[in-house]
Amino acid sequence: MCGAPKQGGVLDGIDLSTQTVIQGSVWHDGAPVAGAYVRLLDSTDEFTAEVVTSPEGEFRFFAAPGPWKLRALAAVGKGQRTLSAEVGLNETTVAID
C-alpha cells in the first residue's frame, strides 16, 4: 500500500542539521483546510511531490535546499507560496484565495 506519511506533528528522529523539511498549513477565511492537495514544485515549476493536508490543514515535505513553490488545491479554491528552503525546518503557510 502506498500513501503519504502522517502530516504535521513532531519531528521525532529527524536530524534537522542534515535534513531539509518544508512544513506548514493551508488556510482559508481564518480556518485550516483539511484534505487540500499541496504540490511541491521545483524552480522550473516541475512537479516533485504531492501530499494531502491533515484534518488540521498541515503538510510536510522532505526536500533539497533551494527555491521551491508550494501550490495548494482545495474545493474552496487555490493558493500558492514560494520559498527558499535551507537545511533544517522551514515553516510556511499557504493561503487559499
Topology diagram in text:
Layout (H helix, E strand, L loop, with lengths): L19 E9 L2 E2 L4 E5 L5 E6 L5 E6 L2 E9 L2 E9 L2 E8 L2
Parallel strand pairs: 1-8
Antiparallel strand pairs: 1-2, 1-5, 3-4, 3-6, 6-7
Organism: Blastococcus carthaginiensis
Protein name: DUF1416 domain-containing protein
Pfam family, one: DUF1416
Walk me through the structure:
The protein is mostly beta strands and 97 residues long. It has a single domain, classed as Immunoglobulins (Immunoglobulin-like), CATH 2.60.40. The protein is 0% helix and 56% strand. The strands form two sheets. Strands 1, 2, 5 and 8 form a four-stranded mixed β-sheet that branches. It has a four-stranded antiparallel β-sheet with strand order 4-3-6-7, with no helix packed on it. Strand 1 and strand 2 (31-32) form a beta hairpin. The model has no long low-confidence stretch (mean pLDDT 91).
